[in-house]
Specification:
Oligomer: single chain
Structural class: alpha+beta
Radius of gyration: 19 Å
Helix content: 40-55%
Strand order of the largest sheet: 1-5-6-4-2-3
Number of strands: 10
Distance between the termini: 25 Å
Number of helices: 10
Low-confidence stretches: 1-7, 49-60
Mean pLDDT: 91
Length: 356
């Protein structure tokens, strides 16, 4: 396990701030109220995470799980904000009546399975970290997040967003922030921050594909399908296949993600556009995976995993640095001049990223 001298957990949410910002300005209080409360709650949690990290106040490590099994615990916040809440399901217990609890439990398991069976990684930290999640967080909370120690899911406001356990790729996305935290520890700003977000989208999508037994051609390549309420014009939060097309709604606006460097967004908001510009490396991964065909976790995913965990990816890496390491990883694992190396080179060329 590579930690680059120690992990520095950040507070990562699946719904980008620019989406909540737009909702918070809506004239309808049924839409603006939950968005404003979510933004305020996220700001408080982000500040708490920073203080906890800087002053070493994190909880002591819990017991490790068996080598080939997850150790899951689901808690219910009962619409409060005290974490973790009351324990409602432990590892090995049968499903209960609360579908949200059951989906959270299953999503943690699906994430554990992909990392163990495809990459021989034992849990998020590679060393049996227990997987904890809290559901029914706050009232009308429009987000889900990894806080450096556990997963937390809101129920949504019912107007724009619904239950955040609905999408297994969202669960995998957030838990992968933990994998990044324990490996490359990519700085959460600008291009390294966009790579951090992209890693979570890549492996979140792979977790969904693995759980469904899908090939790259069969996958929808959507992140957050099932999160948008029925009256929203859109399919998901993001599209790796076609960044910028996930939604186009009168209330939410249009998906701002670029697919290539020609449309790279320069902004100081959202930590330098981490949720926006992640569309570029996302699209590169999609191009590699579909060019190679078959199960995307076997070749494209293995290349990306090799780079994330290999120890050469710097915390402040740019897209070009990452692209160069994927080209190197493809050569080392699959041989120079093979389909894998060619697919990687072509994909980065198509999205306008120069391989260093």
């Amino acid at each position: 396990m590579t930690t680059h001298g120690g992990s520095e957990p950040v507070f990562c949410t699946v719904v980008p701030p620019h989406v909540l910002d737009r909702l918070a300005r809506n004239d309808d209080p049924a839409l603006s109220g939950p968005a404003r409360r979510t933004l305020l709650r996220d700001s408080e949690l982000r500040a708490r995470r920073r203080v906890t990290t800087e002053f070493g106040l994190a909880a002591a490590p819990a017991a490790k799980a068996p080598s080939d099994q997850p150790l899951r615990t689901i808690y219910d916040c009962a619409h409060g904000t005290d974490l973790p809440g009351g324990k409602v399901r432990s590892e090995g217990q049968e499903p209960g009546r609360d579908a949200t609890v059951n989906r959270a439990y299953s999503g943690l398991g699906a994430t554990f399975d992909l990392y163990l069976k495809a990459y021989q990684r034992h849990s998020i930290d590679g060393d049996g970290l227990p997987l904890d999640a809290s559901v029914h967080y706050d009232e009308g909370y429009n987000n889900a997040f990894w806080n450096g120690e556990q997963m937390v899911f809101g129920d949504g406001d019912g107007e724009i967003f619904v239950d955040f356990t609905n999408s297994v790729d969202v669960i995998g996305h957030e838990l992968t922030h933990g994998v990044t935290q324990y490996t490359a520890n990519l700085t959460y700003y600008g291009q390294p921050g966009a790579l951090n977000e992209s890693m979570s989208d890549v492996f979140g999508s792979l977790i969904k594909q693995y759980s469904l037994g899908q090939t790259a051609a069969e996958a929808d390549w959507l992140i957050g399908a099932g999160l948008l309420a029925p009256n929203v014009t859109g399919a998901a939060l993001r599209s790796m296949k076609a960044p910028g097309t996930a939604y186009d709604d009168d209330v939410l606006g249009k998906d701002p993600q670029p697919a290539t460097m020609d449309d790279y967004v320069r902004t100081g908001r959202d930590n330098g556009g981490v949720h926006i510009n992640s569309g570029i490396p996302n699209h590169a991964f999609y191009l590699v995976a579909t060019a190679l065909g078959g199960h995307a976790w076997e070749k494209a995913g293995q290349i990306w995993y090799d780079v994330l965990t290999g120890g050469e990816l710097k915390e402040k890496a740019f897209f070009s640095d990452f692209a160069g390491l994927t080209a190197k990883a493809a050569r080392e694992r699959f041989g120079d001049g093979g389909d894998e190396s060619q697919a990687v080179k072509k994909a980065w060329e198509q999205v306008g990223v120069r391989i260093l």
